Amino acid sequence: MNSLRKTFSLKGKKNLYFNNHLERNKRAKTDLAFNKMNDVNMYNADNNLLGFPTDGKQFEIKTTRKKIEFCPLQDIPTLTINFDMEWKRLKTAMDAIYNSTPLSDSLEELYTLCENLCKYNYASKLYENIKNELINYLKQEFINISAKLEDENFIVSLSSLWISFCKKLIMIRSIFLYLDRTYALREIKIGSLWSLGLELFKTYVVNITNIRIKTINDLLQFIECDRQKNFMAGNEKNTYILLRTIIKMFIDLNIYEDFEISFLDASTEFYRNESRSYINKITVATNHGQLIAEYLQRVEAYLNEEVERCNLGCYNGYVDSITRKNVTSIVENEMIKNYINVILEKGFDHLINTKSYTDLNRLYNLVNRVDLLESLRVYFCNYIKKTGSFYVLDSSKDPIMIQSLLDFKKDLDDVLELSFSNNERFVNTVKEGFETFINERQNKPAELISKYIDSKLRQVRNIPEETIEEIQERCMFLFRFINGKDIFEAYYKKDLSKRLLLFSKSINIDLEKSMIAKLKDECGGGYTSKLEGMFKDMSISKDLIAEFNKTAECSRIGNISLYVNVLTSGFWPSYPQSNYNMPKELLECQNTFSDFYLKSHSGRVLQWQNSLGFCVLKADFPKSPKELIVSLAQAIILLLFNNGEVLTYREIEAVTQMNTKELKKSLQSLSCGKYKVLIKSTEGKNVIESDSFAFNKDFESASRVLKINSIQAKESLEERKTTREKVFKDRQYQIDAAIVRIMKARKTISHPILLSELFKQLKFSIMPQDIKTRIESLIERDYIKRDLANNTIYHYVL
């Protein structure tokens, strides 16, 4: 038998496969004989070689149902073999395989022949002969491929040679598989036939200088065409296969590093030229912002292409993934890192102004890849400061300053969310920028924030509650950064008082209290104590007037409906006194309520604020009756026309005894406003002392209830100036108190240290010159004194 294989079961263990190839006469025997146990290849079910120790004796194996017995072999077989003759048969087979001609022997016979040669110690000689034959083949292949060096299809020929050689080497290895699994596996200094073939191919073909250089150069030309998209239409697939084949050849031959070095050098040159070309074009163009956006898109596309290119498993991938990091770093450095200042200077403002959030996100990701987010953050911060200063410092934009800043903040929030991934550093940059520019113009932003909130809270009937809540929250963002929080408080308190007193029926108490709660959370209870006291007074007044209406005193005021708000002077802003010549009916109402209040609140003083009063008058116009909501001053003037249809300015002035400014303002609102219930004798919006006024009998309006106190409710420039002056005066007291507090604790202190302590304690910004003025004032009042030897040292006066 040329080849025998028998399977034995050993008490439930894995099957053992015994291969034995012996030249024998054909006969049937139960026993299977071995020449040497060392010549036996034993494999388990996983086809792994089993070591089986032996002392060199010859054995036979007798098998029973449950066990295997090893007994000395009685008849020792003999075998003679002629290596040269057998090698000739094997060489003929190798030639046939390499020349792609039919084999004269079957593969099984060739395999057995190889096995026999190995078993009789010809393995080393056989291996050497195979090596020499392969060398001869490759020397001829080298001659053939060298002849094609100047051919434009050289790399195609090399690819075909490589593929053909690998296929032939696999066939040859299958014949000498026994040699590969025994001798080649045991010998450490030699490799498998596959490794041998690859090493010889590298030595006698690819590693030849001309061929290696030509191959790498052709590869780089193909890759550059790929980058520039210069492949012929429909030829991309074949080109990718060709590139993949050659580069895999470099990897298999362990010379990929040679290609990689050249590939990275060529990539550096390519992307350096690309970036230089684009940047030069951007520098001279006028629409550089748009070109920057296109440049960023191109960079991102290049990076994605390189990632795909360095993926052998991808359709258009042909470079080993180990190169991916290096080549993408080249793109990042050459196209982003080296030109980061140009990109940000030429393109950042354009991208953010045009709300190109996708391009901004692309810029953010690219800059982040090269670890230059700090440069982007600096440009972002400078942009915020520059844009914010544009809104704050231009006084002509005061009417729209706060709305512009809120819109600006909304745009920045979109940038943070959609472009900068809400990076905490960039979120803090927004805060840093707002804190800088909003205080470049002292006190004005604080005043305008208060006015803006006031305007929105007066429009609660026209704006949804959710929208006003959002506006309040956004305004609080601005409020957090202003230094003049006392300015804001003064104006907010004044505006809140008007809303509570003059517009109490149209305001939303929940929204008002929500705003107070936000201020309290930000600045503490002391900051909002007076504002909360105002709401408390309104609540007490409501209960008080309900009690008043139940008493006997209420009957003394006849058919007049009276509502009084009793205000604590410490909570509310101070108001100028307006002394009018009140009509008898109104004066009686005031006296009646005063008597009622002082009965239960003895020791208190009621001071009537006529400038804050308003009335609802029923006016019988010939065409239709109306209800007029007017200020107390307007009501006093209108009541005069019950006794006469035409009155001169002088007559009205004599009867009402109002000051000139308030009288003219009231007459103007009644005769020149939206509702002209009085007719002025002269044209124009200004009231002059020679004017006369008549009751407008022809007045008509679609509305039954008319509100005519809009002019009266508006804050004048003088009132604003008075509010600011009061705040500045309060600041002087705070500075004085802070200086005395510091001096009392330190006893002796130098001027620079005193300034430092004051800046820490005071919650508003202050100039050193203002502090110097207050120090001089305290020295004059003997709170502190200068050191006689050093004028910059102060002592506390005990």
From TrEMBL:
SUPFAM superfamilies according to UniProt: Cullin homology domain (SSF75632), Cullin repeat-like (SSF74788), Winged helix' DNA-binding domain (SSF46785)
| Stretches assigned to the Cullin family profile domain | 444-671
Q: Which GO terms describe its molecular function?
A: ligase activity; ubiquitin protein ligase binding
Q: Where are the transmembrane segments?
A: none
Arranged from A to Z, the UniProt key words for this protein are: Isopeptide bond, Ligase, Ubl conjugation, Ubl conjugation pathway
Q: Which domain of life is it from?
A: Eukaryota
Pathway the protein takes part in: Protein modification; protein ubiquitination
Which Pfam families does the protein's record reference? Cullin, Cullin_AB, Cullin_Nedd8
Q: What biological-process terms (Gene Ontology) are attached?
A: ubiquitin-dependent protein catabolic process
Q: Which family does it belong to?
A: Belongs to the cullin family.
Q: What is this protein called in UniProt?
A: Ubiquitin-protein ligase, Cullin 4
Recorded source organism is: Anaeromyces robustus
What does the record give as the organism's lineage? Answer: Eukaryota, Fungi, Fungi incertae sedis, Chytridiomycota, Chytridiomycota incertae sedis
